[in-house]
Amino acid sequence: MLRRTLAHAALLAATSAPALGAQDFGIRPHLNWQTVHTEHFVFHFPAEMRAWTLSVAERIEPIHAAVEAIVGFAPPQRTTVVVEDPLNLPNGSAYPIIGAPAIYLWPTPAEPTDHTGNSRTWGEVLAVHEFAHVAHMSRPTRNPMRRLLWKLLPGEIGPIARKAPRWLYEGYATYVEGKLTGSGRPHGAWRPAVLRQWALEGQLPTYAQLDATGGYKAGSMAYLAGSAYLEWLVARSGDSSLVHLWRRMTARQNRSFDAAFAGVFGAPPAVLYGRFTAELTGKALRIEEELGPDTTARGEIVQKLAWYTGEPALSKDGRLMAIVLRTRDRPSRVVVWRMDEPDTAAQRKLREARERLVERDPEDVPAVQPYPLPKRAVATLRPVAGRAHDDPRFFADGKRILVSRFEPRGDGSVRPDLFEWNTDTKRLRRLTRSGGLRSADPSPDGRAAAAVRCLNGICDLVRVELATGRVEVLAAGSPTRYFHRPRYAPDGRRIVVGVQDFGTPWRLALVDASGGTLHLVGPLDGVNRHSPTFSPSGDSLVYVSERGGIPNVETLDLRTGGTRPLTRVTGAAYAPEPGGRGVYFLSETARGLDLRLVAPSPAPSAELALSAALAPAAPVPPQRADTFARGQLSAPRPYGIGPHGYRWLPGGAVSTEGAFATLLVGSSDPVGRLGWALQGAYGEPSTWRGGALGAEWRRFRPELQGELFYVEHSPSRQEAGTFAPPSLDVEYAGATVGAQLTRNFGARREVYRIGASVGRLRADTGRRQRRQLAFAEYGGGRAFIRGTRFLSVGVDLHGALGTTGDKVAGGPAGDWRRALATGRLAVGQRNRSLTGAVTYGSVSRDASPLEGFVVGGVRSPLADPAILSQRIPAPALPVGIVAGRELYAYRLTLDLVFPLDLYYAAFGTRGGFRDPFRVVGAERSVAIPTLAFLRLPSTRAQAGVAYTLDAPFKHKTRGYFSVEYRP
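RE: above sequence
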């Protein structure tokens, strides 16, 4: 899965949220949401995902009972479950906040080659895994004092969530998924394939590396090695040992994880893990010995590759291969290689380099060349706007290639669509829109493509007319029926596809290209068979078979029904592609996936059957687990404004103008349709004080916003000096309404906003004045990405007009207009960047002094920034250090992946930058959108230190910190 629960992330989210970074759950509140309740759960889901959600909900109560029985605990409160499909990928996460547990499910199913692809059904294994997290980590402490202290915080996190390493909670949820479903990663062929191959290469992670997330499949080791390690511990110490560990971790006596672990298993976790890996390596070596010394069935290496290589595709004549190359540090790309002739230029360079080496030192020994030289790409398709391409398949002419690419839809979601890449003209033409299409294969005549369409958790086998993009369903999927990787027969009359129904293995099926009934082919032996394609002759199929416990390439004769293996690898074989001299396939290694070629002759005839005693280097035999019984559900009802949860959060700021603290009490529903926040601020008179009640209604696009506020601000009383005249001291009460539309297209983002405000203010004169205004804002940006380098441009525009004060007889003295524009340019590579921003602002001449630009201090946490756009925040500077009816400003920011960004800024008023006020500093800012799923408002945190360069506040060093919230 792409992302799993992090207990410490839940801890940070429940308390203050800034450390989460710019995480966005992708929930779209404007959809037509519905709700269904069970005894222990409440599901919220878009109407189009109703079928998938109800298939999970009707089995969730037996899942709850089974998980509670094995974990030994379950939260007494109802668990909130939100189902959404923002990225059209398989995933899930759990948030074990005591008193408010929650689960987030993405319904798109895993493919059979995924570690999670071995399951009776995706919804079942996902629900078991995520609720295991909730039941496991929401167990409260039995220490009364610690429990009281946590109850005083905004969110209560249990000791297991706080103390457990990542491998423990991810490994345990994986362990539970295997125990309760009889399938999942513990019983599949992919977990032992990875562990076995890593062990044979001496690359199993050390205990210190077990929690790592970087490196090839390093992030998966917490699930794979973690669950296998827990099984090993249970085999040594008994089934109750894990529950004893949870009890020790939550006991009245405070213990570290290592101490709790050693008290159950007799030694620290790192020590026993060392023994576990030693035994695992021994079992892997025994399996390698069983496979025999003959390496021909493992295939010859065509290219030594690394990282997550995509599936290879051959042109019809076998002369060209298209393949997706991925690396850790570079964006993935589709390359085309020539397979019918060697790269003579590369061979010549290698030969000449060897000759020069020996010529310079006759006793030197040139290095051996153990692998074929890297192939030279004759065509390359690079990412477009940072979005890479996948699933290449040749058209019959060998010049055009069908590819897919995930495309943003503007509402925060993405879907894969099909494109035609012409390698001669270099043209890339889009064929479909919002299709959710993957693994597409063009027909021999090039008019159509067979593909799998996954939308809302349902994956159908479809036919796509490439000229129009029209989609026709050939075989309907369901919440418990999935399809994978369709391929046309050479004559175009049939399609082969992998299919799985609830509780059955993956099987191969044939269907007429124009539609009709699926015909299952292959043995009925309970073995997973998937990733099929036709042989060039069309009379047999080539596919991946997990027979014997290792994923290998196998063939099926369509006339006789006989099968024979083609490979016998030590790890796993992926993505067979027949043609040329044999069958190409990808082979698992600890560095990535190598491209290999095996001759069409069969592998050794002795049937492969790994002993269960060699687990986890061999698969754990599937268990006969009871199917979770389907229960009766009440009819789903409209979501409305949803159930509301509450949270309080502290905030505030410390800056040169002074210090103040804020307290927020807020509420939101799980999908963020309606959120409100009541805030109060109190501190030094020179800072912002007062209160505000704000709300956002996101049922529609654009979303509606509104707030009532009262603020006091007396910058003339700041201790830094008399930079702000008493005329800037103000008491201001009013109301603001607005509407905002956000459109996100990946590398391009647009935000439109309009609004109005009315209010009354009292300035230093003591006389109340009215203030009313209307504003319009636009923020947009575009990134241009090439490889690891990028250039981005952006602009923020703000315009407002209004009246401040009472009009005098004979003229509109109180009317004003204000414009503010900022342009941004950023260049960078990977995590390093240099950003420049230039700002210009102007206020009409007849405006009240209160409407002039004022630089310094922090922005008000209580009033909408759009109605105080004349206040330019600069927390290291006193309020009023620069003031006037015009504003000139620029800022250079250097991000070198240090904890803080370095910046240089200058501010000027009339006269531009001839006499600016300059400041240098280092800071870190974090902006987090509203996380309604966790009942968290929009949050902005900033911390830094700065040094001033110019009078009248010269050579001053000031630190600052602020946390502010918006509904």
